[in-house]
Amino acid sequence: MKRFLLCVMCLLWLSPALRAQELSALVRVDPSASGITDGWFGRTDIALHLSQGVPFRVFTLDDPARLVVDFREIDFDGLRAAAFLNDSTRINSVRFGAFQPGWSRLVADLAEPALPREIGMPVDVNSGRATLEIMLKSVSPEDFAAAAGAPADPNWKPAFLKAAPPPPAGADRFTVVLDPGHGGIDPGAERDGVNEKQLMLSLAQTLADVLRRAGVEVVMTREEDVFVALETRVVTAHQVQGDLFISLHADNLSQGGAKGATVYLLS
Fold first, then answer.
1. pLDDT (tens digit, 9 = 90+) per residue, 170-193?
2. Which domain does 176 fall in, by range?
3. Domain boundary among 126, 147, 168
């Protein structure tokens, strides 16, 4: 028996000026499986094992030479710098943690110039767990300086974080914004091969059909299995001047049983 408890979070938009709430489900690090390994011919491998996939970006900074990885977002609790370094001689030190609301950062101080040559985050299709993999190769100081530089946009969002422009809502009809939780690289709760992102998308599509038949204008924050950032979901609701925002989620219960729904209201 697959047991999920539906959670419905409703936001009533009183004005477009309502601030987006800082809601976040932190991705966790597996310290025991993560580490840095020095290889032959100037190669260094960084592996950070995570509870699920998460958007990230990688760049380098010069003077002094540093590798920077930004995440949206990670709980580094339990990860110790000394153990993570694993006696690497090409990386002097690492530090990590939150650096602004909704964002986490890892900084590696490089003992010698090195640039990322391979970057990836494969996700296990069965467990949803992911591993950030970065392969560094030693380069000349000149090559490193030429490639280094902070991103131009401090509020960076990669393309797959951005939702497509929503259709205009009817000005004379009550508009409901349906937000199927999770999506894409973020599966949400999982049990017996069923995951939250699929359940909530199916539920939202069914609910949208019922509402539209009743004459209600409906806009969905996602129509398919894609990742949509929390702030993008909120922006979508404001753009269409939604009267009601409903975020759909399902909790996985490891023990006992439950019926019905848990509803959270924010006026």
1. 557 789 999 999 887 778 888 777
2. 4-16+159-266
3. 147
Output the CA–CA distances (angstroms, integers) from residue 229 to 90, 133, 212, in the order listed.
Answer: 35, 22, 26
Chain segment 89-136, per-residue pLDDT in tens: 999 999 998 877 778 889 999 999 999 999 888 888 777 888 999 999
Whether 138 and 199 map to the same domain: the answer is no
The model carries a pTM of 0.52
Contacts of 158 (CB under 8 A, 6+ apart): 55, 57
| Residue 8 pLDDT > 50 | yes
- What amino acid is encoded at 109 in this protein? D
Shared domain for 90 and 192, answered yes or no, is no
Yes or no: say if 219 and 233 are a contact pair by the CB < 8 Å rule: no
The residues, any chain, with a CB within 8 Å of residue 167's CB and separated by 6 or more, are 219, 240
Residues 173, 197: one domain? yes
Classify residue 214 as exposed, middle or buried by CB count within 10 Å of its CB (0-12, 13-18, 19+): exposed
Predicted confidence at residue 52, as pLDDT, reads: 85
Helix then strand then coil, in percent of the chain rounded to 5, is 15, 40, 45
